Amino acid sequence: MIRANRTGGGLQRRAILAGLAASCAARPAWAQDAVVVASKSDTEGALTGAMIALCLEDLGLPVQRRLGLGPTLIVRSALISGDVDVYPEYTGNGAFFTGTEADPVWKQAQGAYDAIARADRSRGLIWLRPAPANNTWLIAVRGSLARHEHLASMADFAGAVRRGLILLAASTEFVESPAALPSFAAAYGFDLPLDRIISLPGGDTAVTARAAAQGISGVNAGMVYGTDGALDALDLTVMSDPKGAQIVYEVAPVIRAATLERYPQVRGKLDPVFASLDAARLRRLNARVTVDGAVAESVARTYLRDAGFIG
User: Fold this and answer.
1) CATH of 13-134+250-306, one of 3.40.190.10, 3.20.20.370, 2.30.30.30, 3.50.50.60
2) Which of 214, 136, 134 shows the shortest CA–CA distance to 169?
3) For 67-89, what is each residue's pLDDT tens digit?
4) What is the pTM of this model?
5) CATH number at 137-238
6) The pLDDT of residue 19
């Protein structure tokens, strides 16, 4: 299932399609010459979308912002239809765009990028350089338990499950989707009973991470994403995935080919910006928004200026 936003779980298709026509309305006449920059309605989307908009403005291009436009299907449909020119998307979602979720290519960073870049080229969409930060599903364990039991990887986590030590908080999608918890279980050889899982209808990792960190309702492990801002603020140990059980999700600008042809300088501007966004840096920037309460565009502007990407 498409992971729509990095703060949330799966799509509610009926609700999405109901709002699709309104969200993808034609551009107003005054904005016909502007480059329309969109993002999904999550923290990292707002942050990276703002970076794109600010960089284009630094090039002197007219920009119309549609940040926080909606979940994946709405934003991607707007891109394909031409109502949006560019937005940040995750390479791993290409598995669902192409209906090839079972293909192991999506579990390799370069393979995933090459696969979706090749598929989207025929749709008139160009993927620019991705950030070297895998924002995939992971599991984090309360720091005190991880230190006491020496838990650092999913292999260690599997042993803790077999010893009956784990109570996991996760979204229903994470628990049920073959690409999520079942993929971890198959790769590392464990079976977490349903009575050791608190399953939540939403996919807000801020909730599951905090539950694990604070021991809410006895929870000591939570579903997280690799670049969640809260990870640096909470005493959590993220379990590494040495077997690559999960699809790789690296964020990259996706731009209409016609727009890139019109403004070829965009590639040279955005590629070094996204190349600089490793997982540790993205976690810190996300934390400025989710933990400190800063505005995403302000965080983006400060980062780009301090790094010398904009004037």
Assistant:
1) 3.40.190.10
2) 214
3) 999 999 999 999 999 999 999 99
4) 0.86
5) 3.40.190.120
6) 42
